[in-house]
Amino acid sequence: MTTRHTSPLRIIFAGTPDFAAASLQALIDVQEANQYELVAVYTQPDRPAGRGHKLVASPVKQLAMKHNIPVLQPLNFKANQDRQDLADLNADIMIVAAYGLILPKAVLDTPKFGCINVHASLLPRWRGAAPIHRAVIAGDTVTGITIMQMDVGLDTGDMLLKKECPIMPTDTSGSLHDRLALLGGQALLEALEPLRVGQLNGESQDESLTCYADKLTKQEGLVDWSQDALTISRKIRGLLPWPGAYTQTSSGTMKIHAATLLDTDNQDFENGEITMVSQEGLAVSTGKGSILITELQFPGGKRMSVQDALNGKFKEELRVANILGQESTS
After folding, report:
1. Can you say which residues are annotated as belonging to the binding site?
2. pLDDT, tens digit, for every residue of 235-262?
3. Would you tell me which CATH number, out of the four given (3.40.50.170, 3.40.50.300, 3.30.70.360, 3.60.20.10), belongs to the domain 9-213?
4. Scanning 124, 189, 264, 300, which has the fewest C-beta atoms within 10 Å of its C-beta?
5. Structural contact between residues 188 and 181, judged by C-beta atoms closer than 8 angstroms
6. Each residue of 268-298: pLDDT tens digit?
7. Measuring CA to CA, how many Å separate 287 from each of 224, 247, 327?
């Protein structure tokens, strides 16, 4: 966007989960002082949730309604009426953050200055559905937010602004998500004023540096104890809080809620063998090195520390020399 815009920006915001709500909150906090006008919010339709399967509004919708911002929830933009509703808003720009819909070119071209995206990676490193999780699983030491101009490709548009965020050795996807959500709001506000006055130009992405952040599946959480300890510990952290890592025991599936890298040296134990049990955790051997499991959950039980598990009915599963990853043969 290179054209100077002197009147207040008419903004449409499109997003759905908590990550997006942080950016919307940042806009709400400054819209009057910074010459922004939030004319509408787009979000995914309400979804059934919980045991009662009651329809629940997205975090973005709840926030918009709290501040009396009009909310639109089309299933997609295939219907002419949905596209006309968008055009009638006469927006200068649409800001998209984890909306959950692929926007067709007709939608991207509707706002005067197009659509920009708050993306949770330092593009072109991670494109796709799960950039936060993939960064942790891959062992990246830094990630961040990229504000990008959207085009018809998947996260392929020009980069407008980047802000870095370190990935700590103890980070889970959950903890990193929360920091990036706040950073996304900061980056968005930092980009909007230069965009408004035509002083922020895009930089094309280097296609040779990109990776695809595949969508997560529950099956991906199964731990392969033949892998090395560093890889396994990253996977456990990267899959928290969802879908979570798990392993098989003779009493069924044991979820692993927290674990740390213990060592990376070769040891003379079987893969998945419990080599030490203490109140601090379970030491488990891997293809190379070992990890320390500190929080877990057995079928029908709740998340608990190893210390609490040792006092419960599953303590037989936590004995030294037991092999994780083996299902019951009875």
Report:
1. 121-124
2. 999 999 999 999 999 889 999 999 999 9
3. 3.40.50.170
4. 300
5. no
6. 899 999 999 998 999 999 999 999 999 999 9
7. 9, 15, 19
